[in-house]
Amino acid sequence: MNEVFTSYLNTIESEIKRALPAESNAAWVADVFGSEPQDLLLEHIAPLLQPTRALVDLGGKRWRPLLLVLTAEACLADRPQLSDAERKQLLADAFHLAPLVEFVHTASLIHDDIEDNSDTRRGEPAAYITYGTDTAINAASWLYFQAPVCIDTLSLPAEQKARLYALYAMELRRLHLGQAMDIAWHRTPAFLPTEGQYLTMVMHKTGTLASLAAKTGMLAAGAGEAQAAEAGQLAARIGAGFQIIDDVINLTAGNPGKKRGDDIVEGKKSLPVLLFAQQYGTDSKELAQLTDCFAQARQEGISSPAVEKAVSLLTESGAVSRAQEKGSRLITEGCSAFAALFSSGNIPAKNINTLFTSLIPVIL
Q1: For the segment 105-117, what is each residue's pLDDT rounded down to a tens digit?
Q2: Among 2, 93, 206, 237, which is least packed, fewest CB within 10 Å?
Q3: What domains can be seen in the chain, in order of their start residue?
């Protein structure tokens, strides 16, 4: 990530680790559980902390909490009536909210690996393999509820906290709707969604986390609902672009810590697949050939020769490169529109563009 963001990321990391410590302590237990229940032992909390903290410690770009903070900073720069002390406090509040988006993201990855039967995450065995499926499901579910504790511990009026909670709850409902769509599609081999349906799914499943980050940053800085909603919509499109690029990488270099082509084994209807179907038609021999590859790969697993055959079909048709162009366009156009929400010359707004442009080479 760009060196401009080193100090931001260090502060974000401190907030994440404060909200999810390596070991529980009395103050943390009181914040999270209200009070320390009688006869509660550290080992009772460990099955919640260990799987979730282990995945957080494996890394991730932290671009979502960084987007939250940079959005708040850009919004604050457009409020000259604020004193330096007020501006400093509101920015500190934005940093304090970083766990809200990072924990939701982490929880969704743990559940996603179970639902997709994935072996690895970030180069290590998936949480359900290391800790057991029951513990992984419970820990990830708990982390969804742990995420908004950072709202409770802010010194904000109850009305503003309620706005943040309502936003969080709405975006989580949207996240699970997107995941439901994706699961239903790859469990129904014969069904092919339209490109529009695919983008709707991705804007919910992946874009909603970017939306949550942008809207939270806006609300933390005191923006109105309409401006926050516009920022969220643009951020969701950018997030969708990143998901499309991520799907492309799955079929080319392979995602870091994952196996190349595992989306084929899972039967995912990614954009390259849909563009391939559009190109040849639903009744074509080419699509029938690709469908056969998916069926064989699902039966035989990641080592099946059908995986590489499917990758070749998608690549040689140009569907992969067209999907990459679509994802890149969503990101670059979204970035320009996002920056335009703020005053011309607003340095923090320029930092948002720097964030996304620094991410594009990483994902490409």
Answers
A1: 999 999 999 998 8
A2: 2
A3: 3-363 (1.10.600.10)
